[in-house]
Amino acid sequence: MKIRYEFADGTVSEVELEECIGTVIIEDRRLKDSLSRRERYHCDSLDAAQFGGMEYSDEETPETRMEHEIKRVYKSPYREGHENSRLSEMEEMGMEYT
After folding, report:
1. Rounded to whole angstroms, how far apart are CA atoms 33 and 27?
2. pLDDT in tens, 57-96
3. How far apart are alpha carbons 56 and 50 in whole angstroms?
4. pTM (predicted TM-score)
5. What is each CA distance from 50 to 11, 16, 29, 44, in whole angstroms?
6. DSSP code per residue over 50-95
7. 17: closest CA among 30, 9, 8, 26?
């Protein structure tokens, strides 16, 4: 059995092999081509995706998280009228109120 090899530079070479080795090489090429077609069929190209859309975004960023935390602390009922409270001390030390 002859197996044909095509190289990247365009040259072609044929090699004479035993039947059992040739069968294994042909089967391996067939499986490789089938896998390549299957991967290409199920592939979603990232080039075709629109980045910046809501489907790829995270609605919560560090900035929005900080804004929510500030609003929660300043609207807390423990804060009103208690400037020297434990909450004020925690804020001065940089600790979070939970």
Report:
1. 10
2. 677 788 888 888 888 777 765 555 555 555 566 666 666 5
3. 8
4. 0.40
5. 42, 51, 36, 12
6. -TTSGGG--S--HHHHHHHHHHHHHT-TTTTT-TTSHHHHHHHHTP
7. 26
